[in-house]
Amino acid sequence: MQKNLKHLFLASLIALNGCAGQRAATDSANAAIVPGAGANSLENADTQVAVAKPAAAGMLGVVYTTNFPDGSRLKETPAEITIVRSETTQKAAAAQTALGILTFVLAGGAGFSGFSKESLRGEKIEDVKDRNNVRNPVPTDFTVQLREQLNVAMEAKRSQYKPVYKHPVNVAGGNTRLIYESLTGDEAQQFRMNTELEVYKKKEGAGLFSVNPFERVSCGRVSEKALPLDEWMKDDYAMVRQWMDDTLRMCSEKVVAALPKMLAR
Fold it and tell me: Which segment of the chain is annotated as a signal peptide (predicted)?
């Protein structure tokens, strides 16, 4: 038994050493969402993100956050739409398997958790000419525009609302990726757009021990049909930009419609 464990230990070290040479690829494949609360990371390796600032006094605050109301959070503020290819999963799986073997040995046979392709952060889309077509406007433009829309809606029915609200509306996540459909076959080259976005506000009367302290509006969206990557790439990823614009427009409409419930006295 000890001899077998020794062989597993050595094998895991070799596998991990082999993965080290692919560090950049593996890093890009790390989970996009991690459990627990934490401070927002405002930049990634390539782009500094100017996150929308809090509203002026007297206005309903709408702010961006990487923290979801369930306690999970994004590792970093998304600056661009990314792509999760089948190779991304294969590299991440190889590294996780090697780590799992090592964990199995050191933990005396305890198991380890896996991951799904939807949880991977993805890689930068390199072949786009106009990077505005893959820019993620959720932390910046969308948050500012939603603040304006909500405050206009409030002013139109001012008598229904309080003069001041102590808790802001939070725009959470916005992580958006092109994700492959299948690891093998023709579907390996087909992709769906996937956006993880939620808008929520803490209830004004919520206390420390409130069971359900938030009013939540889910704006997550996955494209109905998987398309070949060539289709998404047409006209310098114009379809990707249009899909993102449509997603955020629909989200704004849902949040404005839910405003009375979000601001219920």
Answer: 1-25
The three-state DSSP-derived secondary structure of the chain is CHHHHHHHHHHHHHHHHHHHCCHHHHHHCCECEECCCCCCCCECCCCECCCCCCCCCCCCCEEEECECCCCCEECCCCCECEEECHHHHHHHHHHHHHHHHHHHHHCCCCCCCCCCHHHECCEECCCCCCHHHHECCHHHHHHHHHHHHHHHHHHHCHHHCCCCCCCCEEEEEEEEEEEECCCCCHHHHEEEEEEEEEEEEECCCCCCCCCCCEEEEECCEECCCCEEHHHHHHHHHHHHHHHHHHHHHHHHHHHHHHHHHHCCC
From 35-44, 216-225, 238-247, 255-264, the region with the lowest mean pLDDT: 35-44
pLDDT tier for residue 36 given thresholds of 50, 70 and 90: low
Confidence tier at 31 by pLDDT (50, 70, 90): low
Residue 83: name the closest of 124, 118, 128 by CA. Answer: 124
Cβ neighbours for 91, distance < 8 A, ≥ 6 positions apart: 19, 22, 25, 26, 29
* Cβ-contact 130, 236 below 8 angstroms: yes
The contacts of residue 92 (CB under 8 Å, 6+ apart) are 26, 29, 30, 115, 120
Q: Exposure pattern of 67-80 as b/e (b: 16+ CB <10 Å)? A: bbbeebbbbbbbbb
Distance of CA 79 to the CA centre of its chain: 11
Q: How far, in Å, CA of 117 to CA of 111, rounded?
A: 20
